[in-house]
Amino acid sequence: MVLWWIGNAVLLLVVLPVVIALLNRVLAACERIRAATDTILVGGVELAGQLEPVPAALAQTDKTIGEVAVGATRYAGSVAKLLG
User: Fold this and answer.
1) CA–CA distance, 34 with 60 (Å, rounded to integer)
2) How far apart are alpha carbons 15 and 13 in whole angstroms?
3) Global pTM?
4) Distance CA 82, CA 44 (A)
5) Largest Cα–Cα distance in the chain?
6) 25-72, pLDDT tens digit by residue?
7) CA–CA separation, 81 vs 59, rounded Å?
8) Distance of alpha carbon 2 from the chain centroid
9) What is the DSSP letter of 51?
10) Helices (H), the chain
């Protein structure tokens, strides 16, 4: 019975504070991770807002490339006639 009380005392005085300290460190790390993920989420939402006009810009770029291609083809044909 005495060994039982010694085991209980060791549990309360040594093991339990160590477990609580380790748990506190884990929870502190979880809070830092949560803060970092919140920051990442805010940045991702801002980035998504910045990307909304991209499809329209790509469509304009495709249109411009098509116009330049037509002009370049005409120019190349005229130069080919002059050199040929």
Assistant:
1) 41
2) 6
3) 0.53
4) 55
5) 112
6) 999 999 999 999 999 999 999 999 898 889 999 999 999 999 888 888
7) 33
8) 58
9) T
10) 2-10, 16-50, 54-83
